[in-house]
Amino acid sequence: MRKGVTFIEMLVVIGIIIILLVASSAGYVKYAKSGETAKCQELVRNTATALTVLFNNHGFWPKVLREGGGAHGALLDETRAYPLAHYGLMTLSSSGGKLSGYNRFGILTPWAAAVVKRKGSSARLTDRVPSGGTVQDHILRYAVDLDGDGVIPDVEIGGKKMTFRAIAVVWCCGRDGKIRAWADDGRGDDVYSFTAAEIKDAD
After folding, report:
1. Is residue 1 part of a domain?
2. CA-to-CA distance for 12 and 15, rounded, in angstroms?
3. How confident is the model at residue 19 (pLDDT cuts 50, 70, 90)?
4. How far apart are CA 43 and CA 111, in angstroms?
5. Residues 6 or more apart whose Cβ sits within 8 Å of residue 13
6. Which of 15, 63, 138, 194 has the most CB atoms around its CB within 10 Å?
7. pTM above 0.90, yes or no
């Protein structure tokens, strides 16, 4: 009867452990990426809901949202996002009439928010996001119904003009920091608050 294990058997066991570790780490990376995308989708939907509630509750759009290019798509930067914090519609840190903390640049995707949180007070709009683009590229965009007819015309998304049946729509780039034109199939990793049913027409 032999005792212990041979060198070959030990190498086989180590090899199996390495294979299992590689497989599980790949699975974790995929899980983490899908979690970030889900978080971004929730943020975009919540922002569109907050804009809609703001209009329904007050019957008007604050000046910064009206004049910020809201009819055609604009960044929800620190100025335009502030009314959502002011009226308590989103959990955005604010002080002295401005956004503060990691969301001081506006409403950011999770990928850009992680960069700003990590860099703290030294973070800038021009900072690169590891997955692609800059912090500024990762600010959410919006368009609103300015005349109250339930239609938002001529919204440009990725170079394509679209018209929506909605009070407010919100969208942003995905991990790669680029926004592409809407297409029912293969529209990349961009994130939208709207569905195909809300699109009235598109050029």
Report:
1. no
2. 5
3. confident
4. 12
5. 5
6. 138
7. no
